[in-house]
Amino acid sequence: MATTQTTQGQIDLSQEQELKLKQLWGLVLELLDQSNNPDAGPAYTPKLTETLQQKTTLNRSELKALREDLNHVSADNLFVYLLNTTRQESPDRLLLRCLRTRKWDVGKSFAMFVHALVWRNKSINVEETIVANTELNALKESRDMSDPRRAKLSNGFLEQLRIGKVFVHGTDRVGRPILILQGRLHRSTEKSEVLTRGILHMIEAMRLLVVPPVEGVTCIFDMTGFSVSNMEYAAAKFLIECSQEGYPELLGTMLIHNAPWAFSGIWKTMKRWIEPEIASRIHFTYTTAEIEKFIAPEHLVSSLNGKDNWTFGYVEPVEGENDKMKDTATRDALFAERRAIGTLLLSVTADWIATKSDEERTLAHREDVVEELHQNYWRLDPYVRGRNHLDRTGVIQEGGKIDFYPPQ
């Protein structure tokens, strides 16, 4: 199947939705006003407080939570967080996910946007602990017995990948990439650090496969042969936290397949943790025909009784695959370029918000800048992100080309 170039493309919005997006961008621009001043204080300023009180419906407790997120980060921190978080995507898409999740309430969407940036970049530090913490590093650490605990954790992380407990293959009926979790392979004795790293590692890889105009991913939790005694509440809760706080609207659909009767009690507990909007995307299936409502038979793997005879096989990391990450001079130059493009995007976004006449030209200029940011990411990518199984099997290709069905 031909590869797909991951460009951003047009985003179709109604006039009302575009107005909401502009209003949200207006708050973001005020938040990032001091982004080129590393010496500026906390991003939560009296001016921002006044704006939020005047232009949003955020209540006192919501403003307090927002202040707690922003009190220990500067506008410059947040600008870098935004550039890191969007990766290959248009920032518009991140903001629109927040708007859709919060039912187009601009204030609540702004609070969600800020929390997602701080959660991913400061609370979890995904760039260092996941993106740059490579599978090859894990392989080397698993063989280094000078630190037995680290070796055990790294080996546990790799083992999750090798056995195919979670793997990615193909697309559903609307073009979303498919993630399959084989519940029967899970063991409750697995360390929480291993599970957390595995979840984030897979999420960050999946994000690169979401090709516009498609939004989100489809996840199948195959519970065939799953023992509820192995249910890991902490891991489930963390996965829900990722879906709701760190990666808004990444989950397009989840199919829980062949859930045992005893799972109904567990589901009642879990459902209390899940926002209604997310819960509405979760479906229970028990037959192949029910899965095929979401995934065409020819794209459903044979292990789920589909017609796709593809089988999972993990390809081990190889020495030298991350050598570009050692070239910090090129990395820094590309990120400096990214900052410059990002600064330009903020400027043309301010023009876009303010301009009514000649808006078509302003919008076209802004789209060009968004595309520059997208292209910059794929030049930067090999210097900041470790290669993974999807790179080695040809799903993710040089320059951001994605092939969901490469030759096996």
Spatial arrangement of strands, main beta sheet: 2-3-4-5-6
Tally of extended strands?
A: 8
Based on the coordinates given, report the CATH architecture of the largest domain.
3-Layer(aba) Sandwich
DSSP helix count? 17
Helix percentage range:
40-55%
The count of domains is 3
Overall form: globular
CATH superfamily descriptor of the largest domain: CRAL-TRIO lipid binding domain
What's the N-to-C terminus distance?
12 Å
Described by strand count, sense and barrel closure, the largest sheet is: 5 strands, mixed
Summarize the structure.
With 408 residues, the protein is an alpha/beta fold.
Description:
Helix content is 52%, strand content 9%. It has helices at 15-31, 46-55, 60-70, 75-86, 91-101, 106-123, 126-131, 135-142, 148-162, 192-207, 233-246, 263-271, 276-279, 288-291, 328-354, 359-384, 389-392; strands at 4-5, 166-171, 177-182, 217-222, 251-257, 282-285, 396-397, 401-402. The protein has 408 residues and is α/β, with parallel strands linked by helices. The chain is globular and about 55 Å long. The longest helix has 27 residues, at 328-354. Helix 9 crosses helix 10. The strands form two sheets. Strands 2-3-4-5-6 form a five-stranded mixed sheet. It has a three-stranded antiparallel sheet with strand order 1-8-7. The protein contains 17 helices and eight strands. The chain has three domains: 13-123, no CATH class; 165-304, Phosphatidylinositol Transfer Protein Sec14p, CATH 3.40.525.10; 326-385. The model has no long low-confidence stretch (mean pLDDT 93). Strand 4, helix 11 and strand 5 (251-257) form a beta-alpha-beta unit. Residues 154-312 form the CRAL-TRIO domain. Pfam families: CRAL_TRIO, CRAL_TRIO_N. This is CRAL-TRIO domain-containing protein.
